[in-house]
Amino acid sequence: MEAQKLATLKADVMKLRQHLRAGDLYQSLPQRLGYLIDQIPVTPATTVTIPDDGAILDLIKQLHAGLEAGTLTEITDEQLQQLLQHLGSTDPAVRDRGCYYLLNEALQQQLLTNEQLGTIFDVVSQDSQLFAHIDQPENDAVYQRSFSILILSVLLYADHAGMTFMTPARRELVVQQFTTYLLLERDTRGFVADHGWAHAYTHIGNLLDELADESQLARADKLMMLACLIERYQRLTTPLIFGEAERLSTYLALITTKDELYSDYLLRAFKKWHQQLVMQPAPATATAWTRVFNRNRLLEAMALHDDFPTAIVDYLDDELEFLG
Questions:
Q1: Rounded to an integer, what distance in angstroms lies between the CA atom of residue 32 and that of residue 159?
Q2: How many CB atoms sit inside 10 A of residue 170's CB?
Q3: Among 109, 185, 212, 264, which residue's beta carbon has the most beta carbons within 10 A?
Q4: Angle, in degrees to the nearest 10, between helices 142-160 and 168-184
Q5: What's the pTM?
């Protein structure tokens, strides 16, 4: 995404966060966020630079063998940088079963130092990782964006599990970057032939979960991310059909049991969403029907949970009865 446009959007996001913290715009937040999203144009496609995977395959094989044999005791800084450089690979054997798997296993087995965790965070939270080609038609940069979000969720999980490396500055950065990302990401692809999982909206659910559990975050920031998800979700024009609704419903159940503020906001947003659909003409395009069925899948996934607050359960019962 063009640097100046991204900087302007980030500044707008920051202003809204500050106003929300001051209690100034709870009522108008959906409209304000919707306006920001609607102002983001789809720009012409440009060439996505894909890493050359030739050199990384031997390292992946070597590290896999070390893990399986139980002889791997560390990942060097140089090896770490190599793995991070290939998170955007279009080859699932490199990206998913290679780099992501190895980084996740290294975290689980505590083979990485706190300094290395910080290095990973600093790389995957960069603009060049999260916003590459994000305002363009569907493109191969989604793998880098999506897997950077996934790695961020794993890092926060590790921090919550006791590998404390997050600082207030990093916490602020991930909220600001992720909030902006939520407004921008439109790629809803799940499994892609030859390239494996893109799954941006599943990975969004993973990171939302971890941030919902982040005790150091202000309620206003958690509310902001919830609101961004809802406003972007409503405007998606392509289907979410690879389990994303189920993943996001788990997050919605988690956040709404944290505080009545989130439950009230979600109810207000869903009722407004319903009103907008009722007031519109009957769907007559693929885009319109896609939005209807994306919403229906989310409501149905939510209805399978038994851990939502009562008010939301009652609303879901009414909605699903209305849907027939």
A1: 33
A2: 17
A3: 185
A4: 140
A5: 0.97
